Amino acid sequence: MYKIKRDDTVIVISGKDKGKKSKVLRVIPKDKKVIVDNVNVVKKHQRPTQKMREGGIIEQPSPIDISNVMLVCPNCDQKTRVGFKFLEDGSKVRYCKKCGEIVDKS
């Protein structure tokens, strides 16, 4: 289980897009990568196909390593490390190590 999930707000901490804050579109656990909106955008030369009538050069975000992003806490609005703890009902949740608040939307 990773500390970053889809729809989390993250900030890039290294690479050419360092400092950008955006939303996670997809997590790829097998490769330990995430796809973040408007981060690591590459140009792809696309041929016309049945689905996509027009070809040309399209821009799309490509995956970056999960270690290059940090979660932005929705409560204190700062980049933070994430911890896990168990609640009284036995459920496992993520929490912000700076403010101690629960990050998961229940």
UniProtKB/TrEMBL annotation:
The keyword rRNA-binding applies. GO terms for cellular component: ribonucleoprotein complex; ribosome. GO terms for molecular function: rRNA binding; structural constituent of ribosome. Residues 3-30 form the KOW domain. One of its GO terms (biological process) is translation. Pfam families: KOW, ribosomal_L24. Keywords: Ribonucleoprotein, Ribosomal protein, RNA-binding, rRNA-binding. Part of the 50S ribosomal subunit. Belongs to the universal ribosomal protein uL24 family. One of the proteins that surrounds the polypeptide exit tunnel on the outside of the subunit. This is Large ribosomal subunit protein uL24. It comes from Petrotoga halophila DSM 16923. The gene is rplX.
